[in-house]
Amino acid sequence: MTGNESTSENRTDEQLRTDGGPPATVPPDDETPTWRERKERTQGLSRLTYEYFERARREDQDLRQESDYVERDVLAFPTWPHEIIRNLAITSFFIGIMILVSAVAPPHFGDPADPASTPAIILPDWYLYWSFGLLHLDPINPELAILGDEKIMGDEMYGVLANGVVVGAIALVPFLNKGSARRPVEQPFWAAVGVGGVVFSITLGVLAIQNLVPLDLNVIFDLTFLLPVIAGIITYAVLKTMREGYMYDLNRRYYRLRPPK
Amino acid sequence: MSLEKKDEHDHKAWLEERDLTAVESIFLTSLIWLDRRFRIVDYLEALETMYYRVNLQMPKSHTEQYNLDNKFWYWYPLYSLGFLSIVAYLVAAVTGAILGFYYAPSTGGDPSAAYNSMLFIMEDLQFGFMLRSIHRWSAQFMLAAVFLHMLRVYFTGAYKEPRELNWLLGVVLISLTLLFGYTGYLLPWKQLSFWAGQIGVEMALATPLVGEWAAQLIFGGFTLGESTLIRMYILHVFVLPFVVTALIALHVGIVWVQGIAEPH
């Protein structure tokens, strides 16, 4: 009865309206009863249970409000145990791998330092190979005719400057590449630059350990600059092709709507 | 008027005011009896909440809405590399602190006190070889993780708009990590350490204007010796740990404030 009355009231309201009615935020399905309705229209024992529980709930609430009971709002997952246990699992996994590797492959320990004898191979640790490779760029250190074919700067300073240029270029990246694109497919150029940079650091590393590589030094030097460019071009081509396929989904509707020629 | 507090939750009165059948009153009485003792309301409420939660139509997640799960799953393993580098850093800090008890930063002696102390650690000290191995490998892991972390940030465009400062901070941090590794590489004072140091001195001297000053400051002179080793030691165990730890805290703090940049 009450339901019918309210709907008829609504109908008259709607008829009298001149402003186009309420905003179009209609619940998904009008026939779906709400949580409260679902409980209220049940009959018999279940309804009795519901009424008692409502009272009991109310009782609890009153008790909480009148005492000095403090209820905390839960703002996030607790750090303990959820986050801590997950992080401990990851941490112990990583540390376990580190201990395993250090047990299986202990570091080599060489001869003591001897300033009198220069060893055949002088090397930093592997992560500085790229930097050491940049010190080997003397063949492209420009020579000036006006100085009588003398170099503008020393080869070593040229290498140090190259280090500065590389680090500076990396630091500038966020100020050169703007926009909201987040995937390599969305910007093949920058992905190609990145892949070229990675390959360049590897080829520079090979240049740094040139006396361990069974190749002619000139060949190594040329490959140091050629391979990054090739890798960059391949990356660009692949990502560009992938983007066509990726954009197809987005453009399909547009192509459908276009009249055939 | 009674001073006694009025019981608003008088179940007995409530039961009497209702006109209940025998079955109903028995059911309700036993329900109240059980509830008073076992708080079954709470459990039923939890069940009820669970039921509605299970049957709830959740709004589509960001991933579902833009059909992204096939786009970024392959980046996901790389999202823990920053954390791995911190873990490796902590392991290196702990093992390094223990190694510090046995290491002597001196070039005196035959061939040198530093080299001899390394020999002692690796040959005589219980667990010393393993300790040094862990220290060295955790450093390698940290460097590798830091490089890959940078690549991940680059290729997922995580350095973009609000995060430029953190990228710059990362460039500084990676440089300091390399310096950390370099100073540590020099400490055993073996042939490779010595000649790697020689490269460093030559690089410093090749720099115009500030070169000689930098060589004096960092290497303690134009040729390698006791002062070089001591400076590397001080950098490695005193200066860099504090600076790098502070910068890592800042780096992570900014990530905390800005949130992790997910590909979208």
Automatic annotation (TrEMBL), chain A:
Record Gene3D superfamilies: Cytochrome Bc1 Complex, Chain C
Region named Disordered: 1-43
Cellular localisation: Membrane
Residue intervals of the Cytochrome b/b6 C-terminal region profile domain: 69-188
Species assigned in the record: Halalkaliarchaeum desulfuricum
Pfam families for the chain: Cytochrom_B_C
UniProt keywords, alphabetically: Electron transport, Heme, Iron, Membrane, Metal-binding, Transmembrane, Transmembrane helix, Transport
Transmembrane segments: 84-105, 157-177, 189-213, 219-239
Taxonomic superkingdom: Archaea
Entry keyword annotation includes Metal-binding: yes
Bias kind Basic and acidic residues: ranges: 8-17, 33-42
Protein name listed in UniProt: Cytochrome B
Molecular function GO terms recorded: electron transfer activity; metal ion binding; oxidoreductase activity
Primary localisation category: membrane
Organism placement in taxonomy: Archaea, Methanobacteriati, Methanobacteriota, Stenosarchaea group, Halobacteria
Membrane topology: Multi-pass membrane protein
A GO cellular component entry from the record: membrane
Entry keyword Nucleotide-binding: no
UniProtKB/TrEMBL annotation, chain B:
Coiled-coil segments: none
GO cellular component, one term: membrane
SUPFAM superfamilies hit by this protein: Transmembrane di-heme cytochromes
Keyword Transmembrane helix: yes
Record-linked Pfam families: Cytochrome_B (PF00033)
Regions that span the bilayer: 78-103, 137-155, 167-187, 199-222, 234-257
Highest taxon in the source lineage: Archaea
One term of GO molecular function: electron transfer activity
One Gene Ontology biological process: respiratory electron transport chain
Gene3D superfamilies in the record: Cytochrome Bc1 Complex, Chain C
UniProt keywords, alphabetically: Membrane, Transmembrane, Transmembrane helix
Limits of the Cytochrome b/b6 N-terminal region profile domain: 30-264
Protein name as annotated: Cytochrome B6
